[in-house]
Amino acid sequence: MLKKLTRRVKTLITKPFKKPKKPPKPPTPAALPPPSPSPSPSPTMSPPPPQLPTKIHPFLFPNVQSTVLPDPSRFFSPNLLSSPLPTNSFFQNFTLKNGDQPEYIHPYLIKSADSSLSISYPSQFLNPSFIYQIFVPDLTVSAADKTGSAHVISSYSDLSVTLDFPSSNLRFFLVRGSPFLTCSVMGNTPISISTVHAILSFSSNSSLTKHTVRLNNGQTWLIYTSSSVSLNHDLSSIGSDGFSGIIRIAVLPGSDPMYESVLDQFSSCYPTSGEAVLTKPFCLEYKWEKKGWGDLLMLAHPLHLDILASDGCDVKVLEDFKYTSVDGELVGVVGDSWVLKPHQVSVTWHSIKGVNEESNAEIRG
């Protein structure tokens, strides 16, 4: 019993004085690579050359072969083919199939076919279901000794298209709203003007720059030339020897002598193109490029007259000078720039309960 107690006391006394175990050695870190020598200073480098801005090209749709319509690009001048061609334009009949369907260039129907251009002051067919204009080639202009190639569209804009007949030395400025058909003749070309009607009378003024043609359908047409030209005629055609210059053709829309007087006054100034531009807030401006001398005479339909601004543009409305059209009466307007200002629409709705004051800042932005 005493031996057991002695061993117990020895154990209790000596146990706290035992040597503690050594902690495990941390792992030896991997040897670091020797520092690399400092790089030698590099020679001074010049800055990179400035980069030119990338030229942005318009997106071109891939060419496809239509099984319904041939490629219309053959009717466009090559310089127009680098940009997208217009679709659903006012002159698209000049580019569909053979390009020989009439197109309405107010106030005339115009048809291009067989190296010639025909003009019609159309009558209208009406019934309860529809209305359409009847094309009759009242006058057809061509080069007397040239045949062959079709027309080429050399330029176009919002309000105009220019048709060239390269083999005939003829260029037609077709501008919407012009009471005249304007033709530029180059190269001392003999001109032929024919009709499907009978010519009842033909006369020229003393300077041979104005010629009057009366047809058996009741129409009277005026032909103006920029220089003297002697015209001969038979029952259905009018011809000239070589001519270079401008020819303008217009129908008399009524029997009042006032019509002829107005056309005489403005026959020397002709438009070559026209654009619709947004130059002022809430306004649309029609601007025409013109040549010749004097003021420009154009025609406005009822909507134009309703919103034609009297301030900010130098125009004069000839209220009694009128042509008929499928869009209503076309009225003469003198001026090469119109400002069209639509009527303001007032806002009539309102909040029944009003707006909370704490929302005012958010609404004002």
UniProtKB/TrEMBL annotation:
<protein>
    <recommendedName>
        <fullName>Glycosyl hydrolase family 81 N-terminal domain-containing protein</fullName>
    </recommendedName>
</protein>
<dbReference type="InterPro" id="IPR040451">
    <property type="entry name" value="GH81_N"/>
</dbReference>
<dbReference type="Pfam" id="PF03639">
    <property type="entry name" value="Glyco_hydro_81"/>
</dbReference>
<feature type="region of interest" description="Disordered">
    <location>
        <begin position="1"/>
        <end position="56"/>
    </location>
</feature>
<feature type="compositionally biased region" description="Basic residues">
    <location>
        <begin position="1"/>
        <end position="24"/>
    </location>
</feature>
<feature type="compositionally biased region" description="Pro residues">
    <location>
        <begin position="25"/>
        <end position="52"/>
    </location>
</feature>
<feature type="domain" description="Glycosyl hydrolase family 81 N-terminal">
    <location>
        <begin position="81"/>
        <end position="348"/>
    </location>
</feature>
<dbReference type="InterPro" id="IPR005200">
    <property type="entry name" value="Endo-beta-glucanase"/>
</dbReference>
